[in-house]
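One thing: can you check what follows?
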Amino acid sequence: MTDLTLHFNGEPVRVRPDDTVASGLYRSGLRIFSRSFKYHRPRGLFCLEGRCPNCLVNVDGVPNVRACTTPVRQGMQVRHQNAFPSLDHDLLSAAKAFGWLMPVGFYYKTFTHPIVWKRVEPLIRKVAGLGVISESPDGCDSHDGYEHDYLHTDVAVVGAGPAGIAAALEAARTGARTVLIEQSPQPGGHLNYQRRNHPRIGERLGAKGASKGLTSGQVAEHLRAQLAASPKVEVFVHACCLGLYEGNLLGVVQQNRAAGGPESHGPAERLLHIRARRIVVATGAHEAPLVFENNDLPGVMLSSAVQRLLNVHGIKSADAAVIVSPEPDGGPVAEALRASGARIAAIVPPQDVIAALGRKHVTGLRTVDRRIPCDLIAVCGLQVPEAGLIAQAGGRLAWDEQVSAFLPVELPAAIFAAGRVTGTDDLEAALSQGEAAGRTAARSLDLSGASGDGETRAPKPSTTPPSLLRAPSAAAGRSFVCLCEDVTDKDLCEAITEGFDHIETLKRYTTVTMGPCQGKMCHLASIAACARETHRTIAETGRTTSRPPASPVSLGALAGARHHPVKLTPMHSKHQELGCVWMDMGEWKRPLYYTGGRAAASKRELVEAEYKAVRERVGIIDLSTLGKLDVKGKDGGKLLDKVYTNRLSDLRVGRVRYGVICDEAGIILDDGTVSRGSEDRFFITTTTGNIEFVHQWLEWWTVGTGWCVHVTNVTGGLAAVNVAGPKARDLMRKLTDCDLSTKSFPYMGCAEADVAGVPCFLIRIGFVGETGWEIHFPADYGEYVWDRLFEAGREFDVRPFGVEAQRLLRLEKKHVIVGVDTDATSGLLAADMAWLTKADKEDFIGKAALERSRSREIREKLVGFVMQDDLVPDDGAAMVIEGRPVGRVTSSRFSPAKGKAVGMAWVPAGVAADGREIQVHVRGIFGRARIVRDAFYDPEGKRLKS
C-alpha cells in the first residue's frame, strides 16, 4: 500500500492508508497529543476507542475531532488544541503551580464581588473550552454538509460485537428486517484487537478445519462473512447511537467522509432516525482507568489501547512495560507486549500502585515497596458495561457485587440485552445470549405488549475483583478521576466535605462526568469515591441519570442539511442590481442596506444616506415580505373583535387601525394594521415571520362559531412598497389620479387606486415617521411598479432604503417591533401599549389576563432612552443601577436627529420615569442614559400627518 501524507501543525507526516490520525502520529514519534482542560498537563494516547479527551485535535478546521477513531486522508490538515505556543512548551501549563488557588468550584467562592468578576471573567472565558471554532461560516464544514435519514425496521441491534452480530443474524433467520449499528470501522467488537485462542468456538460457528479452535480475529472474520451473506441485515459502521427515545426511536450519527466512513462522496455526517419495533442492546463494555497519582501522564495507557496499537496497527508501544493487573500473568496485554519484543519490567497488583513517575512522559512506576523504570504503564482497568441506552429507555440498573458493575435487572417493553452489557465475559455465553435475544425479539413481533424475557444475562464470576474500586485517599500529588475536567480524587473529597455528598449534586458541583467522555472514563471511579467518603455502599450511592446524547455530537449533524425554504420578493433582482447587502428575515431575503456602487463607504455612512433620503426627500422600501390576509364575510368584524385587543367592527370603510393580538395570558403575539375596504371586507398586515401563525390563529377562533367569515393568505400574490418622505406626495401624484391631499386622503386612511396603470390598494400610515403610503399590488407587476416609482422620483433624488435604515427611522418614533422589543413574556401593559385595549368589549382573547394585570404591580416596563455621552449600546446590553444589571436594551442606534444614540429597553417599573438617569453597560464601559417618555423625533406626529 502506498503511504499517505497528512500535515500536523503544518509539518508533513507520512502515514499508512489503514492508520487513524492517532496511530499515524504515534508511529511518527508524537507522544503528547493534547493539554488538559484546567491545568494544561501533557496528555497522550489513553483509550484508543474514542472514549477519552486525550486525543482531541482540529482536523481540516473542525475542532474536537477524536484522532484515535478518525482514519487518515491524503492531505488532511491536523492541528493541536488547548496549548500555546506548542504541545511540548505550553505557557498555560503554569496553572499547575497555582492549583491550590483553584480548588473545585473556586469561581463560585472566590470571585463574588461584581468588580472582581468583571476583571477575571474575560480571562476565564479565554482559557476555558477546548478547540477553536472557525470564524468562516463554512470553516467547520469543508465537506458537503449534513443529512438526515429516516428508517423503519423490525429489529435494531446496537453494537456489532459477537453478541450483537449473533442477535442480528438470528433475528434475520427468523424473518425480521434487521439493522445492525456499530461505531467502529468494522463489526467484531473486542475480537478485532484481542489475540486470544478460543478452542471450542470453531465447531459452534461451523468453521471448517477449526478443531484446534479459532483466534479472536478468525472468529470476527467468520461472523463478518455470515453478515455479508445475510440479505436481511443492514449494517451501519462508523455509526454512534446517541440515545434511545420514546417509541423505540434510536438517534444514530454516522460519520462518512469526515471520518473515513463508508462513502467517498456525500455528507460529512448523517443523522439516522431509526424507528424499530424491537431493540437489542449489545453495546458491550469499555475499560475504565484506575485512580493513582499522575495517572494521566503520557505513557499511561489502558490495556485495550496497548492491544489496539500492537495488534491492529502493528506499532510497538514500549521497550520496557509495567502491567497493572489483578491477574498474576498480566492477561492478554502481556502476551501482546511480549510478542512485540517489549520487556515486561513487572506485573503489579492495582492495590500496590502509588504513582506514575515522569514529567512529560512515563519514566517509571512507584509502588508500595519499590520504583520500577519503564516507558509504558499498561492499566488493566474495570470492564464497565455500556448500559446507558437501557437506562434511557426506562430500564433499571442495579449494582452487582459479583461482577463489580451496574447491570440491567429490569428491561422495558420491546428492549432486549445481550453480551458484555449484561455482565458476561465469556465468548460462548455472549453468542448464546445474542442468538436468544435476536430470536426472541423477532418472534415477539406478532405478540402485543411483548418485552424482554428476563433471561438477559448469565454472568460468570468476574475476573476483576472489587478491590479495583478502592480509589486511594487524597494524596500530595494529583490522582485524576476525570481526565476531561481535571477533577482529582482530592477535589471530590473536598466537595463532599462541603456538603455535595449526593452523586448528582457532586457531579454538578465538580463537573465530573460532564466532559467530552460523558462519564465513560470517570463515572464508576467518582461513584466509588463518593461511596468511600460518605461511608455508603456503591449500591446505596447509586449512579447519575443517563441522558442523551451518550456521546458528543456536532450541532451540524443535529441541524441537518440546509433545506430550509428561501422566499424572494418580486423585486429581488432589482435589489441585486442596486448592490444590496442581504439579510435573512425568517424565510425571506430582504435588503439590509444598499451599497449603490460605493464599495468604499462604511455601513454607517450608507445607512445614514438612506435615512437622510427619507427624512429630507423621499425613499422607497420593499415591504412584500409583510404578511397579508384578506378577511371576507358579514361576521369579519366579530372575528377581529374577538382576536384583537381593540375594537375593529366599528372601523369605517376607508380607514385603517393599528392592532395587537395577544394570547390567553395577555402576552403580545403579533401586531399590524387592519384596513376596511368595504362593509364585509378587511385587509390585514402582519409581521413578516408570523403570517402562517396569524392565519391559523384567526381560523382557529372561527371553529364552532357558525360565523360567515373567510380568511385567505394573499402574501404570495401581492407585492408591496412604502413610499415615504416629505416628497412622497409629489412623487405619487405623477403616477396616480387619486386625490392624495390630507383632506381627501388623511393619515390612517386607505383606498383603491391605479398607480402607473396598475390596480393598487393604498394605505397611508407612518411607521418611519414621515408622510407615506403603503402600496399593495399584484406580484406580477413588482418590477414594473418599482421601476416606474424610481423614474418618477428621479427629480427628487429618490433612494431605496433597507431594513437597517427602516429600524433607525422607526426607533426615532419609538414604534415597537414585536419579537425585537418584546419577547415571549411581554404583556401590553408592561410594553406601554395599554391604549390598544378596549375593556368595554364583551370579550377578546387575553382580556381576563389583562384585567388581572391591572390590579397587580407591574415589575418592568418598556421605555425609551437617550444616551448622554457618545456611546452606542449594542442590542441586548445591560441596563445597570448601582453596579447591578436590572434590565436590557432591546433596540439601539445612533440617531442623526438627536446627535446621540437612542434606544428602547426593559427596566424596573420603579425607575421608568421620564427624565430618570440610568446606566448602560457598553462593551466594558458604563454609559449614562436618560429615560424619555415621548418619541425621539416629531413627538406630535405633525410630519407623518401632513
Summary: Confidence is low (pLDDT under 50) at residues 137-143, 258-263, 447-475. Residues 255 and 269 are 5 Å apart (CA to CA).
